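PT: before anyone asks, these are the final sequences, not the draft ones from last week. 611 residues across everything. Please model them as a single complex and drop the result in this thread when it's through.
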Amino acid sequence: MSAVTTSRPRSSAPRSDSPRSRAIREPLVSRTSAMLVMAVFTVYFLLPLWWLLVASSKSTGDILTTNPLWFADMRLFSNIGDLFAYRDGIFLRWLGNSLLYAGLGGAVATLLAAMAGYALAKYRFPGRELIFDVVLGGVLVPATALALPLFLIFSQVQLTNTFWAVFLPSLVSPFGVYLARIFAASSVPDELLEASRLDGAGEIRTFFTVSLRLMSPALVTMFLFQFVAIWNNFFLPLIMLRSEELFPVVFGLYGWNNQLNQIPELRGLVLIGALLSVIPLIVIFLLLQRFWRNGLGTGALK
Amino acid sequence: MTTTVPARARTERSSVPRPRRPRVPFKGAIAALLAPFAVLFLLFYVLPIIFAIGQSLLVVRREGTFGKAELVFGGLAQYALVFQDEAFWTSMLRMLTFGVVQVPVMLGLALVFALLLDSPLLKGKRFFRLAFFVPYAVPGVIAAIMWGSLFSPNLSPFTALTKNVDFLGADLVLWSIANVVTWVYVGYNMLIIYSSLLSIPSEIYEAARLDGAGQFRIAWSIKIPLVRPAIVMTAIFSIIGTLQLLAEPQVFRSFSSAVTSTFTPNMTVYATASIPNANLAAAFSVVLAVTTFVLSFGFMKWMQKKGNA
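LR: through. Structure below.
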């Protein structure tokens, strides 16, 4: 406490009512207990990941016999090599599948949701509120409730157990439309559209050259969350896919985890695979931080 | 825009004598922007719902024991089976119990963390914000594999604890799964509430500060009421998520025999579809979707009413 109070003694004396000085006078007990709470939960949130990192760096034997929270014989890279080599590199195939499902699917879903949300925000037409309400209803209908009916439909057209069975349903993001509408209403000024019209630019062209750019921070947020949703999707692959070579990575690991009782050697591969399947998501979140941080609260503003 | 566009449309109509001028300006552009989403939404959202309802009204009829199976209209026969299915309703009740405890705990924690991040009490906010959010990047399946290992007696770093407390036994396994869900989603909900807190202009606090209100008082009387919409939104998504629980308990089956194949409603849907009994599974899906919709929509309306009162 003394260190903090003495570091800015002058500002607190003359301007006792400014917010800054107020901060300094927060009691030591409050500050310490706040830090303590946060420290305890930091351990809670990070310890499992630390454990995963440590466990993935060990040989299968060491996982059970050495200290679970500290490194033993460092095998991280040879474990990765084993994982990539296992069954002709099926894991890399899964990783590629996931990137395709989530990357391409997320991008297309974001664009389509942006177009629809923009149309709902920027134009007046009959049925607009009805369409928006139906889409909002779609937000409340959970995706997993649709997995089985989707399976029944796809089996009618013989498309189960194909790439499309997982890819196509991922392109629809009602929540994205909801967000895009809010973002478009707040970030694309009507005056700009009028000006663009006076210049003779078509509506669609204006959307792609002007509006989409103005909405881009929001689009990053939408893409990111759709990407995560597809990457983590479980029910759809579970119910649609039988062929291993179509699996997304998370679902493939689920399969391996289920075989642990018959093939205990897989334990090491499951752990290193889990680590590698999480890293792309953490990296993409860190890289795009400044976008999603601002975008996250928008859904609740209305 | 509301005033300019109709005005312009009217003047144009009067000057150009074309009778079939579209009443809505930019009709073509609106259609082009909406159509791609609308088509996919109809195909992969609306059609499945209709199809599921249709399938749930059919029953299999056989002529004799070895006769050919045939799908015929069976009215609400499948729904009668759903309502008699004890395992399904047990799993619904289980998820309700889960939700009543887990959702408030998770959102309570998220709210406390968000308020602490927004208060002047903490140092290193950037670090905490990221550290708490990282689990959201972990897929449910992976989170369940990790926690399943941490709870299992032989793999866990806390063997003293896991050898004495059976986290994976019938009594506790539901709460072990609740822990996985909480671990993944607290940070996400925290950030939603936190960014809502950030949008409150700080002048609002000035008066309270002048009146001598402490941080706790400011949080309770000013901040929490103002971020209510964000909390309501996170609550709705949590209610929906709870009833849909599938990946985490499905993974836990490899760690615990206490998790049955009908542990959650969605697991029942999957198990029934694998029999295969698509029609009964469709009826389960419809009942689950309707229940979810009613609960989340009802909660939303209830909150709106409370907010207006």
